[in-house]
Amino acid sequence: MRKILIILSIISVAACNSAKKSTSSNTASFTLENLENMDAEELTKAFPDANIEEGSDFYDEGTDERPYSILYPGTADELHITWQDEDRKKIHDLRYTKNGKWTSKTGIKIGDSYDKLVALNKAPISFYGFGWDYSGAVDWEDGKLKNSDVRAFLSPQNEIPSDFYGDHVIEASPEQIQALDLKVSSIIINYNL
Fold first, then answer.
1. Helix (H, G, I), strand (E, B) or coil at 171
2. 138 lies in a domain?
3. Of 58 and 25, which is predicted with more confidence?
């Protein structure tokens, strides 16, 4: 009887460890930085259930046409990939706007507050005005994330003062920033810098 209990215990521990490994590898596969060196064929193999859509569109305020792939279109895990080349061999950037499985090694997530970005950056940040292509773009200034490939974009949850619109760095008091209730609405990792 004792031997049976020992064998059952060993089987239980082995099963738990197997489940942990499967979960951690699944989590790692949804880490954006792990995609950097993949081409379109490798993405298809790594994410066979992604229902990948492909096409071509204009970016950078309509000045640059690039091919794209969309993984998990229309879901919380939707990820937009633009390519540097027509053969889809080298990623230009990765973009997402929904709070699904995708993560960044920086710790930044969709929905994070302005204050959380400051904490992750370990220094003050600034941001650009709203109502244009790079609306709410964060400048990491001289912080920890300054040399990262990660770009975050903030969206206000409350009314925007008229002088907070446009392509310029916003000069805002802490009270104005708090009143805007800024949240991360989009994350881009750019590999073509």
1. coil
2. yes
3. 58
- Asked whether residue 77 is assigned to any structural domain, the reply reads yes
> How does DSSP classify residue 164?
G
- The encoded tokens of residue 85 equal 């080349």
pLDDT of residue 3: 52
Which three-class secondary structure state does DSSP give residue 26? helix
- How many domains does one find in the chain? 2
**Both 64 and 91 in a single domain?**
yes
pLDDT score of 15? 47
> Which residue in this structure is represented by tokens 């499967």?
22
| The two three-digit tokens of residue 137, written as one number | 């773009």
* Residue 147 lies in domain: 114-190
pTM: 0.81
Q: For 96-154, how does the pLDDT look when each residue is reduced to its tens digit (9 = 90+)?
A: 999 999 999 999 999 999 999 999 999 999 999 999 888 999 999 999 999 999 999 99
Residue with tokens 């244009």: 132
Task: State both tokens at 181.
Answer: 């209730």
Cβ–Cβ < 8 Å for 187, 95: yes
Same domain, 177 and 149: yes
Is 18 domain-assigned?
no
**Average pLDDT of the chain?**
87
Output the CA torsion sign for 10, 14, 17, 19.
negative
In a domain, 158, yes or no: yes
